[in-house]
Queue: 3 jobs
Job 1
Amino acid sequence: NPTTLVTFVIGGEDKIDIEEFFVFNEFSCYHSPVWKAALNGNFLEGNTLTNTMEDVEPKVFRLLAQWLYSGTFEDLQQARSKRVILKAFHGVVYRRLALLWGLIEMLLMPPLQNAAMLALCLWSKKYDATGIMVFNHVFDNTASGSPLRKLCVAQ
């Protein structure tokens, strides 16, 4: 049914920062075989049409949802158009993109991984935004030989 919505409950490891996102089931299943299996199978997610992801930050999931609907990262385009010059902000954006890349690797979404990797490359080149916190997260949460690790080392 093209009008069926899935509720994604995002965040909440700290029980404070929780947001709900509503995404068309068709979009979710089309872009991720992981979601397709969970939402169409005999799993809790499929029965309730709710997917809880406590370890994902809402701002990271927002980037994913924006890409599902528009094929772009709206937040990044707005930041560039405002010409934000704070280096700390650029590090935050880079970190979000790195977290997004890890999430979509888990969800098996290669086209979005490519878009996130391109955004990471462009963002780091333009703003010199990589940092030790991003390095630590990437090396703690990716496999040896990961393209994201290679990017961090190259930057």
Job 2
Amino acid sequence: MSSQSQTKTDLRRWINAQIREVPKEQRALWSHQVQEVLMGNPAWLPKDGGGVVAIFGGMKLEVDVMPLFSWLQEKGCEVALFALDGDLMTPWRVRLHGDLQSGVMGVLEPLREEGGRLEIADLQVVLTPGLAFDRESGMRMGRGKGHYDRIFGDPGFRGLKIGVAFELQLITGVPSEPHDRAMDHVVTQNGWQSFK
């Protein structure tokens, strides 16, 4: 294991421990506050009013963005979620909460209905979870599988990358490698940070 990998592994453990120490009720409150920050600044939505916004089904220690589903639809956006196919995440259009199922590690995934698969190039905004985000550069550190890095590295992707996290996940000095991608913005319960 390289020292860079070890550094990331240690940081992942430390961040996970920090989040686990926060009571479930506090995380729920912070998630609600993040949702309010996102809804309070709709300038991040696709300008054409009908664009595709990808959200995530979330693990239990991540910000809950699922309540944004209906709000995004009210704003005229199509909502997409990712399905995990081996090592690749593929975006799928989701019209109703009922079009979701529990996937890998309990993360909500789309049912993969016929005609619902989207291309990476269709995504105009991707709300992105992560374990840590660099407060100075917007660099993201995920769980180490590279799923979002592959999406953002796809030549067809031209969308806005918005990291979504709790404030305690914003740190200085997130280690990065050439395949890692920085966010355009990061939003927490305390507000927005822009890096674009």
Job 3
Amino acid sequence: MTVQPELIDEQVRERVRRHGLGETLFVEAGAGSGKTTLLVERIVNLVLEAGVPLSAVAAITFTEAAASELASRIRARFEQVQAEAIAAGDPARADRCRQAVADSDLAAITTLHGFANRILGEFAVGAGLPPQIRVLDEVSSQLAQEDRWQRFVDQLYDTDEHVGLLQAASALKIPVEPRYLDQSTMRVVASQFNQNWDRLQSLITAEFAPIGGDYDFSYFDGLVHELAEARSLNKLSDDKLHIRLQGQLPEMQAIAAIDQPLRKMRALTQASKWGPGSGGKGASWDGDGTVAYIKGMIKDVELAKEAVLRPIINDVLLRLSQVIASETYDAAQARRADGGLEFHDLLVLSRDLLRTNPNARQVLHDRFQHVLLDEFQDTD
């Protein structure tokens, strides 16, 4: 007869499955090491050894497939132990197994979203929901989001409320809608907001100055003026650096002269890429130090484009995000009133219910004596 060697962590496994039934435990181990098997054994022992009804246990995992498999494994294990108890002449243990099998179809062996849905279904009114709620699947949620986005964009462009903001976005080449496949646009922001709509209040209530009123281009303008003044240090007009400067400076000066913010933003966004090139001799200027200075100034002007545009782009993105956030939050509240909920709605509304409703909290606290989470790292 072959004797299986004892696993080096057998004492830990026994604590999880049997000896530590009254403890809160976090089990971390690699794939295939038997975590789910231990969870099944722990549930069986809670029922058979600790006398906890299966209806008082919540077993939660990440996917529908995993939840279905977990429920099947728990049921099968109770059926196996029941058969063993009958064979051993232990009718009391067999009866407990029989009751657990009967309870398994209605037991809270489900996904995180399924558990949240169970809570909201029981306390719908307390959660601010209609008596009957329904959960939109992933495809339905995606289609609904696409429809909301298109209606939002149509309204955005059909009203005068955000004309200045849209003009600024256009000037800065910030795309609201994609112009080509897989382009990152504000639609991506909307999708992320939809998955985090409960965290948008601070953005929605933020206050901004009139758009363009406080945009500062003085750094760019000052560098262009300084570079234009430095041009007088040239002694030979056929010097390559001088020729290059003569070709680039007019565009720089034309942009610096613009005093209308939107026009200036567009001009800076569309400007050529400026650079000093490899030419320039000290003899054509006031020495090699002057050549290095001129080249550095040209580089600085090029960098100044990004320096002045970056905070403006961030501001416009933030303003656009605020508009999208407001629409996203309103859509979530409309779903709440209608009762057609998306997955993230389930988590947020059940969490808020338990935070704010003492009665619901007490009922669930009394009902579920043990909560077990499989694949904890994948849950919210």
